[in-house]
Amino acid sequence: MILVYAVILLIIAALLFRRDLSAIGQTSFRGGWKLAVTIASLFVLQAATVTFVAGQTITQMAILILSQVALVLLFLLNYHIPGAKIFALGIILNTVVMVVNGGWMPVTPETAQFVHPDRIIEIESKPSSSKNIVLPRSETNLWILSDIIRVTLPWRRNAVSIGDILLIIGAGQFIFLASPKKKDRWQVIHQPLEEN
């Protein structure tokens, strides 16, 4: 969810810096709309069967990992787009730490309590509305790649990983480098005429 908030803030910043966001729609993607629809469908399936559903089944973990791998494929196919490589690296780091911890993104009990101070946190449980599993630091493989960075927003608390930070940087690169700066009216009106 933090990525969604970050993208909204990046778009607002781009508008304030007078970036032409309409140019983003003209970016050519490899893989076509069929690949994009397939990946979007995987993420809808992920939301319907994993993120907002209790439990830790093998099917849920398989859907979660498959959606991440498909997203990496999409960004590697489109490595020419600004931010795609950084975005893919962020997804890879997140996927690796999830795979080595049983298919879920680990979070320590202390960080889970920070995010949800009103809940009782149980070890090896999957908090509702999340892709996390609560594990002590000593039992977390590749702990440094897990959700260790605590973030306080005015309306909620959250925890993010190094991979999530890379996703935000990749999204920022895409938004700012794929959208040229708009020309001021004054510049357009007073451009020197080319000599014939």
Short description:
This protein has 196 residues and is mostly helical.
Major sheet: 2 strands, parallel
Count of the domains:
1
Got a strand count? 4
- Strand percentage: 5-15%
Order of helices and strands: HHHHEHEEEHH
How far apart the termini lie comes to 55 Å
Low-confidence stretches at least 5 residues in length (pLDDT < 50)? Answer: none
As a whole number of angstroms, the C-alpha radius of gyration is: 20 Å
Count of helix runs: 7
On the 0-100 scale, what is the average pLDDT?
83
Helicity level:
40-55%
User: Outline, from the CA principal axes?
Assistant: globular
- Widest beta sheet: strand line-up: 1-2
Class derived from helix and strand content: mainly alpha
Describe the structure.
This protein has seven helices and four strands. With 196 residues, it is mainly alpha-helical. The chain has one domain (2-17, 29-181). Helix 5 links the parallel strand 1 (105-107) and strand 2 (132-134). The mean pLDDT is 83.
